[in-house]
Structure formats: structure tokens, C-alpha cells
Amino acid sequence: MTGKTLLVINPIAGKGAAKRHLLDIVTRLTEGGCTVTVLPTKKGTETTDRIAALLSEEGAFDMVVACGGDGTLNITVEGMSRSGRKLPLGYIPLGSTNDFATSLGLSSDVTEAVDRILKGTPVPHDLGSFNGRRFTYVACCGAFADTSYSTSQSMKNLLGHTAYLINAIPSLTSIRPLNLTISADGETIEGKYVFCGLGNTTVMAGTVKLGNNAVNFNDGKFELLLIRFPKDLIEAGRIATKLLAGSIDDPAISIRQVRCCRILSAEPVAWSLDGEEGGKSKNSTVSVEKSALDILK
């Protein structure tokens, strides 16, 4: 696809790969028929506000391209949603892990990614809403939930996905149990859990992997994944071993599909949205917005 393009880029993503490839990306998009406006990301909400403002004017842009990691994609999608305009979204995944891109089978090779954007067609994907805030592929709490943003950038740059695993697995034995009451599509679930995640992805929190055929990205449902709080160190070790092996085949792990979910807890729980801080909440509502996002593939 071509036309007036807003390129949202995180210069430090992927060991600075986005910054190194910026000229090449702009050149390829321009030669392909795009008129490119570059918007580097900044900390806080400034980038999201800027995206919403730029897109709010009718006809200002024909498509948006996000270049960076999952956090960059989250910021971009939130800005697009706030603008009230539904535009095709291209994604150049140059982060340290790129969970969402992995789920969709999107290449992190810059040339392939740009060609896909130029030649691709918009494919509808569901979006999530967490207490009114959009997320692209996962909302989660408990162990691993803060892994993406608590792992230092230098560690991610050095070790990539391994950095998340090093940071995540020890939390299985140190985290306090989450006492949750979950109402999901008329079903009530109660218990003590070490992890709760709702996603439209085959990878949650950089650690928990679902099967490649387990997810339909545009069925109006997200996968609700629950990991029961370990009864003892033996069970904790067994769960950790399964997760490190990329498996969720364990009696302590359950998964079901939901359209809308309300999660209550006795104490405020810290949430992560697409690997970014999502704030603390005792009463959270997560719903699916079917076909709310068009991704160029």
C-alpha cells in the first residue's frame, strides 16, 4: 500500500536497529510511492497524543507504520484509536522480542517488512480494551507480567529474548498469590493464581507460549490463560520447566476463550499491556473489539 504515511519509530528499539535502518526504511517507502512523515517516540503519553492529533485531521494520512518493538506498536495503536480514524497499519518489528510479530509470522528483516507493507493488503485483527485503554495483543498480571518493562534495556539489547526468561522464571517462587474472582462470558472462576493473561497472541509476557494453531486473530475472542499458584516448590519447579520448554501442558495451567472478562481482586494488582505498564487495579474489565485493527500483511 502507498500514500501519505506516518512512520512512528522508536530509535532505541532492538539495540538501536530502528535508528540505524531509518534512512533505508524511509528511502524504500518513498521509492515505493509513499510520502513519509517521521515521528520518533518519546517517554510518557506525548507520542500517543501526537499520533492522535496528527491522524484526527481527515485525509492527513493514508496509513501508519510502526517501527520498533511491541511497546511501540501499543503506543501507535492507542494513538490511532484515540484519533477516531481507522487506517491500515504496517509493522516493522525491530524490538528485542517482538512477540506479536512472531505470532503473526511477520519478518523482522527490514527489506522484507517494507516490501510487505508496500505490497500487502489490510487484514482485520481484534483489539483488546482494558478498562477503556486499548492493547494490541496481551493484558496480563502476576509472574512475568512486568518482565518486559522491568528487564533493563541494556540486558534486552545484550541477550534478547533470553533476558526475559532470566528475569521471569525466578519470580515463580517469590511472587505472592493473586486471589482472583473472574467472570468470563457468564462463567465465574475463583482461585489463587501466579499468572493471569488475556491475549490475541501465541506468546504472552515473552515467556508463556501457546501453540501456533491455538489462536484465531479475528474471531472476536481472546485466550484467557491462568496458571494456578504452586502448592509447593516441586510444583513450582515443574511449571517452570514446562514454561522454559515452551509448553503449557500442565494440570496447573488452564486456557479458555472469552469475549469479555471482569477480574476482581482483594488488593490492587499490577497489570502489563503489550509489555508496558498498565497500572494497578482491583476491578478490571477486559473486552474484545472485533476487527478494530487492519494490519498490512
Report on the structure:
The protein is of the alpha+beta class. Helix content is 30%, strand content 38%. The strands form three sheets. Strands 5, 6, 7, 8, 9, 12, 13, 14 and 15 form a nine-stranded antiparallel beta sheet that branches. Strands 2-1-3-4 form a four-stranded parallel beta sheet, with helices on both faces. A two-stranded antiparallel ribbon has the order 10-11. The protein is globular, with a radius of gyration of 19 Å. It starts with a strand and ends with a strand.
Summarize the SSE layout with pairings.
Elements: E1 3-9, H1 13-20, H2 22-31, E2 34-40, H3 46-56, E3 63-68, H4 70-83, E4 89-93, H5 99-104, H6 110-119, E5 122-130, E6 133-135, E7 138-142, H7 147-150, H8 153-159, H9 161-168, E8 178-184, E9 187-199, E10 203-204, E11 208-209, E12 222-228, H10 233-244, E13 253-258, E14 260-273, E15 276-296
Parallel strand pairs: 1-2, 1-3, 3-4
Antiparallel strand pairs: 5-6, 5-15, 7-9, 7-14, 8-9, 8-14, 9-12, 10-11, 12-13, 14-15
